[in-house]
Amino acid sequence: MPRPRAILVISAHWYINATAVTAMPRPRTIHDFYGFPHELYEMDYPAPGLPELAGEIADIVEPTWVGADVDSWGIDHGTWSVLAHAFPDADIPVVQLSINAEKPLDYHLDLGTRLAPLRERGVLIVGSGNIVHNLRAMSPGTPDAGFDWARRFDDAAHDLLAAAPADLVRLSEHPDYAAAVPTPDHFIPGLYFAGLLAASDTAASRLVDGYTYGSLSMSSYAA
């Protein structure tokens, strides 16, 4: 893969009542979790921002309004936990796009579709979440397995991403949706990925296929 000009991340952990993009030159590393090992709170991912990319995003998705966040957010753990492995030097500009909690699933799929031209401008787009994410149902005794309902839902998502990504929103009608997606924040980044696939008429390639604690899918895709 060529070195990206910048990385745009849609993280499950920036879930707010607006559509916004980080627009600061030096985003801070955010430790938005609790109860984890001390070492994680010392993690710093000092990647620069790219304020001008915020303007590009706002232009490319018009008439959808996208606000510029210059001081409230940064790089959350949904972003740095991935990029620290993929780009450990933290020398590529990183920008985050918030998930607007007030919008329906179709909105996010459409926005993902309209972000697609950024890929031709050297921007790597990453969706960070989980197709199946139910923390209340976790079973510590099954660290490497998935419950039947989790597997059914994850397999259904895989089939759609491979053949009809624009239909991923239909998973809200799946009989296991309530168990797999008790809140939509971790599911929605996948809709942005599905939108990118639909815009380019390509199929997803699954990089990781696995589960943990029964109720978390670790499936990862690329295109």
Fraction of residues in H or I helices: 25-40%
Question: Could you report the average pLDDT, rounded to the nearest whole number?
Answer: 96
Low-confidence stretches: none
CATH class call of the largest domain: Alpha Beta
Strand count, sense and barrel status of the largest sheet are: 3 strands, parallel
Give the percentage of residues in beta strands. 15-25%
CATH architecture level-2 label of the largest domain: 3-Layer(aba) Sandwich
Structural domain count:
2
- What Rg, in angstroms, do the CA atoms define? 17 Å
Count of β-strands: 11
What's the total helix number? 7
Strand order of the largest sheet: 6-1-7
Task: Write the CATH homologous superfamily of the largest domain.
Answer: LigB-like
What is the 3D form? globular
Assign the CATH topology of the largest domain: Protocatechuate 4,5-dioxygenase, Chain B
Compact description:
30% of the residues lie in helices and 20% in strands. It has 223 residues and is α/β, with parallel strands linked by helices.
Structure description:
The protein has 2 domains: 1-128, LigB-like (Protocatechuate 4,5-dioxygenase, Chain B), CATH 3.40.830; 130-222, 3-Layer(aba) Sandwich (Protocatechuate 4,5-dioxygenase, Chain B). The strands form 5 sheets. The chain has a 3-stranded parallel β-sheet, sandwiched between helices. The protein is globular and about 45 Å long. The chain has helices at residues 38-41, 51-60, 77-86, 105-115, 148-163, 177-180, 188-200; strands at residues 6-16, 20-22, 28-29, 67-69, 74-75, 94-100, 123-128, 205-208, 211-212, 216-217, 220-222. The longest helix has 16 residues, at 148-163. It is of the alpha/beta class and 223 residues long.
